[in-house]
Amino acid sequence: MTEIVLMSDPRIAAVPLQERGERLVDVRRDSSLAVDERKWQDLAGAFAHVREGVLARLLKAQAQLPRGIRLLFVEGYRPLSLQRHYFDEYGDQLRADHPDWSVEQVRSAASRYVSPPEIAPHSAGAAVDLTLADADGRELDMGTRMNATPEESAGACYTQADNISDQARSHRDTLGTALTAAGLVNYPTEWWHWSYGDRYWALMTGADAAHYGPKELPSKRS
Ligand SMILES: C[C@@H](N)C(=O)N[C@H](C)C(=O)O
Ligand SMILES: [Zn+2]
């Protein structure tokens, strides 16, 4: 298996940024993408936003899926404050479970599941957590629930895990083939996390610089 580069790897933070200044767009603005309702308690709708270039690539990926299968968008943009909260919360849990671990061990293990805020692809509007659904909107079996931790899934959340069924493997491959062809990069510890234009993407593709850095979502005028 090829080496997994974790989000805490210093090579990611070292990637230069050439910010393109693209807007964050709401993927619900038309019905091209199915958007799951599990994050709709976020009343400002931040979760439904991604950079324009990311949405264009998601639509390209969707067009390449087999007939009757669609992308199901779950979470895109995440404010930095929320990213920080997720990272600290999971770090606290790991520290409680492993009191002997060093600060660096906790940071590295936490980054298997949540990005350190300073390089977070979601807070740049560059990442999306998504899955596949059939024509009736039913989610396909991907082997674990989305956002399963490595601990709760015995590592089955890793994209290339072998402790999933053949059918789940085939669904993951279908998702991966379409998104990779459209230019997105997967985080190998999470089958559902894909990004374009962020620092992780730049390191993995050999791009000179990231296109998208952390961004605030402009508040809507009432
Ligand atoms: C928390 C999980 N849904 C996620 O998005 N993880 C990645 C690695 C992230 O925080 O960027
Ligand atoms: Zn994600």
UniProtKB/TrEMBL annotation:
Pfam families associated with the record: Peptidase_M15
Cofactor mode of binding and number, as noted: Binds 1 zinc ion per subunit.
Reaction catalysis annotation: D-alanyl-D-alanine + H2O = 2 D-alanine
Alphabetized UniProt keyword annotations: Cell wall biogenesis/degradation, Dipeptidase, Hydrolase, Metal-binding, Metalloprotease, Protease, Zinc
Cofactor: Zn(2+)
Residues with site note (Transition state stabilizer): R78
Record function comment: Catalyzes hydrolysis of the D-alanyl-D-alanine dipeptide.
Family of this protein: Belongs to the peptidase M15D family.
Name this polypeptide is given: D-alanyl-D-alanine dipeptidase
